[in-house]
Design a protein that fits this description.
Blueprint (H helix, E strand, L loop, with lengths): L26 H18 L1 H29 L2 E2 L9 E5 L2 E7 L5 E7 L6 E2 L3 H5 L4 E7 L2 E2 L1 E4 L22 E5 L8 E6 L7 E5 H7 L6 E5 L5 E11 L12 E5 L1 H8 L4 E2 L1 E6 L5 H11 L7 E2 L4 E3 L6 E6 L10 H36 L2 H9 L4 H40 L7 E2 L9 H20 L1 H5 L2 H9 L7 H23 L3 H20 L1 H19 L1 H13 L1 H39 L4 E4 L7 H8 L4 E18 L2 E12 L4 H4 L4 E4 L8 E5 H7 L6 E6 L4 E10 L2 H4 L2 E4 H4 L10 E6 L4 H14 L4 E3 L12 H33 L1 H9 L4 H39 L7 H20 L8 H9 L1
Parallel strand pairs: 9-14, 11-13, 23-28, 25-27
Antiparallel strand pairs: 1-20, 2-16, 2-19, 3-4, 5-15, 6-16, 7-9, 8-12, 10-13, 11-14, 12-13, 17-18, 18-19, 21-29, 21-30, 22-23, 22-26, 22-29, 24-27, 25-28, 26-27
Length: 923
């Protein structure tokens, strides 16, 4: 080594003639030199490193926040409330599985959660009760109920549904009184129900409804509403001042009456197992499993959860998994949330790598002349690499630690947002164990690693070439980008277009994945081809800029032409931001717009009956249909089915939202847009299929499709009709009599009415019928469009909003940082222009034109990149071009314009100030 700090002699080396390696020095002195150079460089280039610091802080914060949310979801489980006092709970298997043979006779399996309850035969009760250590085996049924208050001494009153948020906690379920021991509930007032017209309410429900012991209330379950006397009020034992379960209400009937109301006397929703004192949960689990015929060891599902299948398809749940039968929607929602978070995390990591690598590389490239000079005066390649590595590590470690600390409140904010928007069901608990908060340290380490690799690779060229060559390359950019970079960019563009073509040919999940892959691949290709894109933008915009921009336009065109790589580095993050945000916003907006239109077009009804409670019974629908003037009445049932199929050779289980209606009323109240067949033939054993789904599965009239209902029943159905409004109605349409037996609670979400007379003549009569048969229901004279109820719709909307906001803001910071670094590196150029006579107004005009060129090129390329996957996905699915609301498009354009203007003009304000101009004049 021949270069050292100021306390060591320096021996200059001829940069042209010296081709032999320099004499090595002691490693300690080499490290001391690198430390000295890094400290001086950090102080000298603090503004440039400040931009890198901001990007790294945000990278660590975003990665840590999403990683915390993802791992919390992995550890998530259903809340344990109603079965908190049970040692174990026996329930049906709420999972369906599909096994398919792959190449070479190798079998592969996949599974999906079921959304309707799989029940337990009551015949196993004696076997469970006989297990040693079991104190009691209690059968429990949970059926939705709606409570309305009728004060004593009055004949009628306006019913108030307890499902409204201001009246009572939702949902509310009815249970047999013997199941109160599983919480356990104890009586605080009154006595246990002794007759079929007596009930016990939990304390929260009674307080919200304003009822006391002895009051009369109307309770509607799966049948007609009836009046009951409140015989007692109960509260969970050992809960302090709490008088309810927290996330569900409870109404207790006599055991026999509860079994009649549940409607399945031969089976129970679950069986709770109470243990003798001193008997552990593990002993109960092993004994009950053996009694049910299970032979395999218990399998761990997640932390604190354990279950085991036996030969009858039952499961024995202990620990945190006891809450699964209480909240059936917790497991599917958890899986859907986990999938969305994993996809967003993958996207965040890819974008973070691109942004961090580009920002760090730009910061290092700004010092190319300085590093070339160090090489010329004798610094070794190892010293340069060590210097840059130390600089990057110093900045990255501090930034990553600050971001990791900030990731914790970001995680809390994300969870609160999910809860406030009802994107996550109340029954799903997302825990935060102590080990979870070590995760941001791992993401901070990843941030440091990416920054270090980017810095090392950025200085590799300058550190390895001969000093004379490094000095020459530092003076100007190469005329053309490297061949390897160009070839790689073209390959990525080809792969992106190929992925878009795959999205056109495929359907469902594969098409969505292909479109997402196309967007990211095209963005990476544009990043690699940034200099070529910049040159192309200049070819298009150069002539008008020179012609109409005056002296400033000429200067802008000349500066951009001489520094195409620099311009490409500025355009790349803009393309990334515009493409990502446009794809995310336009994809959902296109589906919502087309689905909304189909839903409005599908509804032909004149009136609609809706309720804020658990639903409307079929008896109420029949009574409404008999009102004079009502030509047709059909309830609408919502459920899910699971479709088993192969995608690219792999087995897939896809859970789809479906609905069922009365086929006889279809032409009058709902028009699915039949293109083939006849919906009048819907009934037992038949189904109508959406046009796109029929095409993807190769189905036609008379074909047979195998589906799994929400309760796990695997049935083969004959296709009776094919319709086109599947975005609104779902991919499968059933008759009520076919779908209802496979639902836990076959209650209609609303009733559609077709009339023979004006609506005003019928509405009052329908409302009177509802007062007795469906308390709390309302009649609407303008039915809203029908829309399928996707279970993860709320989660998807929230995650998309968060992803767009976070990653959009992240890339805005990246654009600002990149442009700031570029403009800081151009201050000498601006000073030189001022010295040769350019005025401040001309330079400002030049900078504004450059900002306009950068922003316009980034917007155009970003929109083109987004349109390729969006068109490939939307045209086959909706038959329409992608749609983006004008307000959102305006926000994107405005953010790009403000960001680019700030990144270009603000760093140059000191160089264009009057004080600085006076200093140049004195020179």
């Amino acid at each position: 080594m021949t270069y050292a700090p100021h306390d060591s002699p320096v021996r200059p080396v001829d940069p042209v003639r010296s081709v032999h390696p320099v004499r090595p020095v002691h490693p300690v002195r080499s490290r001391r030199t690198a430390r000295f150079l890094a400290a001086r460089s950090l102080k000298l280039h603090r503004r440039a490193w400040a931009a890198v610091f901001a990007v790294l802080v945000l990278t660590s914060l975003v990665l840590g926040g999403f990683a915390l949310a993802t791992l919390s979801t992995v550890a998530g489980h259903a809340r344990v409330e109603r079965y908190a006092g049970a040692a174990a709970v026996v329930t049906g298997d709420q999972t369906t599985r599909y096994t398919a043979k792959m190449l070479g006779d190798e079998a592969q399996s996949t599974s999906a959660e079921l959304t309707e309850r799989v029940r337990v035969p009551r015949s196993v009760l004696p076997r469970i009760a006989a297990v040693p250590g079991v104190r009691a085996a209690v059968a429990d049924d949970a059926f939705p109920v709606a409570v309305s208050v009728r004060p004593t001494g009055t004949r009628t009153s306006t019913p108030t549904s307890t499902s409204t948020p201001t009246a009572t906690p939702a949902p509310v379920y009815g249970h047999p009184w013997q199941a109160a021991a599983l919480a356990p509930f104890t009586l605080r007032e009154g006595r246990a129900p002794a007759g079929p017209r007596q009930v016990v309410l939990d304390g929260d429900l009674a307080a919200h409804a304003g009822v006391h012991v002895g009051d009369k209330i109307t309770v509607q379950s799966l049948g007609a509403p009836a009046m009951y006397e409140v015989s007692g009020i109960a509260a969970p034992k050992g809960q302090g001042d709490r008088t309810g379960l927290g996330h569900q209400g409870a109404v207790f009937f006599t055991d026999q009456h509860a079994r009649q109301l549940a409607g399945h006397p031969g089976s129970a929703d679950a069986i709770g197992v109470l243990a003798e004192p001193g008997v552990s949960d593990e002993q109960i689990h092993a004994g009950v499993r053996a009694a049910l015929g299970g032979t395999d060891p218990a399998r761990s599902v997640t932390a604190g959860q354990r279950y085991e299948e036996d030969d009858t398809g039952l499961r024995v749940l202990t620990g945190d998994s006891r809450g699964e039968p209480e909240f059936l929607d917790a497991a599917p929602s958890r899986w859907g949330l986990l999938q969305l978070l994993v996809s967003v995390c993958t996207l965040v990591v890819m974008i973070a790598v691109l942004v961090v690598a580009g920002t760090v590389a730009q910061a290092v490239h700004q010092r190319a002349r300085e590093m070339a000079l160090l090489r010329a005066v004798g610094a070794t390649p190892k010293q340069l690499r060590a210097t840059v590595s130390r600089e990057v590590r110093t900045v990255a470690v501090v930034a990553a630690v600050i971001g990791a600390i900030g990731a914790v409140p970001v995680f809390g904010l994300l969870l609160r947002l999910l809860r406030s928007r009802d994107a996550v069901p109340a029954g799903l608990e997302l825990p935060s164990p102590w080990w979870l908060y070590a995760v941001p340290l791992l993401t901070a380490g990843l941030t440091v690693l990416v920054a270090w690799l980017a810095g090392t690779l950025a200085c590799r060229r300058t550190a390895t070439v001969r000093p004379a060559q490094a000095m020459g390359e530092a003076q100007s950019e190469p005329e053309r980008p490297g061949r390897g970079r160009t070839v790689a960019g073209l390959v990525m563009l080809f792969l992106g277009v190929a992925s878009a073509g795959t999205a056109v040919l495929q359907f469902g999940e594969v098409a969505a994945m292909a479109a997402s892959t196309a967007a990211m691949t095209l963005v990476i290709g544009c990043a690699l081809l940034g200099p070529w894109i910049a040159r192309g933008a200049l070819q298009v915009l150069g002539a008008p800029v020179r012609r109409f921009g005056g002296a400033g336009g000429y200067l802008a065109a000349a500066a951009a032409q001489a520094n195409a790589r620099r311009l490409g580095a500025a355009i790349t993050p803009i393309v990334l931001m515009v493409a990502f945000v446009t794809v995310q916003l336009s994809g959902g907006a296109t589906l919502d717009r087309q689905g909304g239109r189909q839903g409005v077009d599908a509804v032909r009804a004149d009136l609609a009956v809706t309720t804020g409670g658990p639903g409307i019974t079929q008896q109420s629908v029949d009574r409404i249909g008999r009102v004079p003037g009502v030509a047709a009445a059909s309830g609408v049932l919502h459920s899910t089915v699971v479709l088993a199929r192969k995608e690219l050779g792999d087995p897939r289980l896809e859970r789809l939202p479906v609905l069922a209606v009365d086929p006889a009323a279809l032409p009058r109240v709902l028009d699915p847009g039949v293109v083939e067949g006849d919906t009048a033939k819907l009934g037992r054993g038949t189904v109508a299929v959406g046009k796109d789904r029929a095409r993807s599965l190769g189905l036609g009239i008379g074909s047979v499709v195998t589906l799994r209902y929400g309760d796990g029943a695997n049935v083969s159905l004959r296709v009776a009709a094919v319709y086109e409004r599947s975005l609104a109605l779902g991919d499968f349409l059933f008759a009520t009599e076919e779908l209802a037996p496979h639902m836990s609670a076959p209650l209609h979400s609303r009733v559609l009415l077709g009339l023979d007379v004006p609506a005003g003549q019928v509405q009052a009569a329908v409302q009177r019928v509802l007062a007795d048969s469906a308390p709390g229901a309302r009649v609407s004279p303008a039915p809203a469009g029908e829309q399928r109820q996707s279970e993860d719709r709320g989660v998807g909307e929230v995650i998309t909003m968060v992803a767009v906001s976070v990653i959009g803001g992240f890339t805005v910071i990246a654009v600002l940082s990149t442009l700031t670094l570029i403009m800081i590196g151009r201050r000498q150029e601006i000073q030189l222009l001022r010295l040769v006579g350019a005025g401040r107004r001309q330079i400002r005009r030049m900078l504004r034109i450059e900002a306009a060129v950068v922003g316009l090129a980034g917007l155009v390329v970003g929109v083109v990149v987004a349109l390729v996957p969006l068109v490939a996905l939307s045209l086959p699915l909706t038959g329409a071009l992608p749609y983006l609301p004008p307000a959102q498009a305006g926000v994107i354009v405005g953010v790009v314009a403000v960001t680019v203007a700030a990144g270009v003009l603000l760093p140059m304000r000191p160089a264009l100030s009057k004080r600085h101009s006076a200093g140049l004049a004195r020179r």
